[in-house]
Design goal:
The chain is an alpha/beta fold and 242 residues long. It has one domain: 3-Layer(aba) Sandwich (Rossmann fold). The protein has six helices and eleven strands. It has helices spanning 27-38, 96-107, 138-143, 145-150, 167-176, 194-212; strands at residues 2-4, 16-20, 42-47, 72-77, 82-87, 112-120, 132-136, 154-155, 181-188, 216-217, 220-221. The strands form two sheets. It has a nine-stranded mixed sheet with strand order 1-3-4-5-2-6-9-7-8, sandwiched between helices. Strands 10-11 form a two-stranded antiparallel sheet. Helix 1 (27-38) crosses helix 6 and helix 2 crosses helix 5 (167-176). It is globular.
């Protein structure tokens, strides 16, 4: 399952892990793109699993132009003990539970895991409340009680995150394995969700600034847009068709 570059093992003890779900608008994956590009994270390997539809393509980041895109990539920032998983394809559903169990074994020694997701905007029932909701395991709550007390997010009490993909299922697997885990999602609409991705990272930084350590410029965090975002919706329409 684990294919590493220039190393034999991946020691995640004491690390913070960020994992996107395959959700509405790809908002979580876009947020991870921003994080990887902004921190100039280094690719250390990728995952191979029957749940992942194979994909291969050019680099998604200008700071690492020699790399190639794969179905699931692992990026690391050793200075901040931060690892980001990035998924490029949807899952084959009948194998997703196996993938979740494998991920749980891989990250079981991490200090904390944050799953990013999104939900359909029209599923938000309370007007005027925060567009973010979250769920945390008991161990995550115990470790971050003070930070959670200061956020304006609503705690999610439901059984389904509509449009949230595999986020809630992975959360329950990690919670069962007693991994400190949080699921954070934002209500979004389909379309250009690059703005939602930026807002997710900024909101997460309010809680997690101690381990995200994003560069601050003029009292605002500095985010770098990945080169791959230039073609989020494909090439421009050629004038030759008119």
């Amino acid at each position: 399952m684990l294919q590493l570059k220039n190393r034999d093992s991946l020691n995640l003890e004491g690390y913070t892990i960020i994992i996107p779900s395959i959700c509405v608008g790809n908002a979580a994956q876009l947020a991870c793109d921003l994080l990887i590009a902004s921190k100039k994270m280094r690719r250390v390997g990728n995952l191979i699993h029957p749940a992942l539809i194979p994909v291969f393509g050019p680099s998604a980041y200008q700071h690492n132009p020699e790399e190639r895109v794969a179905a699931c990539e692992i990026y690391e920032c050793t200075a901040n003990k931060l690892v980001v998983f990035q998924f490029r394809t949807p899952f084959i559903s009948r194998h997703s539970q196996s993938l979740h169990n494998n991920l749980a074994r891989l990250v079981r020694h991490a200090e904390r895991v944050v799953i990013l997701s999104a939900s359909f905007g029209f599923e938000k029932r309370e007007i005027g409340t925060s567009p973010y909701e979250y769920s945390v395991s008991d161990s995550f709550r115990q470790n971050h009680e003070a930070q959670l007390a200061n956020v304006k997010w609503k705690e999610f009490k439901g059984n389904t995150v509509f449009g949230g993909g595999n986020g809630l299922q992975l959360f329950h697997v990690l919670e069962e394995k007693q991994v400190p885990v949080m699921l954070l999602f934002r209500y979004v609409l389909e379309g250009d969700n690059s703005t939602d991705a930026t807002l997710i990272i900024r909101e997460l930084n309010d809680l997690c600034s101690s381990f995200l350590r994003l560069e601050v410029e003029n009292k605002s965090i500095k985010l770098i847009v990945p080169v791959s975002w230039k073609l989020l919706f494909g090439n421009d329409v050629t004038s030759l068709i008119f």
